[in-house]
Amino acid sequence: MSSLPSKNLETFVNPQIDRDYTIRIDIPEFSCLCPKTGQPDFATIKIEYVPNQSCVELKALKLYIWSFRDEGAFHEAVTNQILDDLVAACDPCFMRVRAEFNVRGGIYTSVIAEHRDSEWTAPTPVVLP
Prior knowledge:
By secondary structure, the protein is an alpha+beta fold. It has helices spanning 58-66, 75-90, and strands spanning 11-13, 23-33, 40-50, 54-56, 94-104, 107-116. The strands form 2 sheets. A 4-stranded antiparallel sheet has the order 2-3-5-6, covered by helices on one side. Strand 2 (23-33) and strand 3 (40-50) form a beta hairpin. The N and C termini lie far apart (48 Å).
């Protein structure tokens, strides 16, 4: 596998296809460029998903995230692009991407985008006494 930035998201077969479970991934070193100033923007990207047939391979995800480093992108656009690309790669039952951008000009920005497969029903949460 390459160690250069790449937009190629690889997947592998879900090892527990008969069970709904959640995968959580935190990426604290995301960076892209402000499209207005060219200054770097830094964020933590948080991905939560319930896999369907496949899961995202983590090294490929790392290289994918790295590919944004020299690209100009508005926070809202890049968050939704990450979600769209991940959904296209692994077709999850549910996925949420949360981008928590570091302070810039005294303003913190968080952008949350979600995908839900229309055929999937979320399990009922267990409430213990």
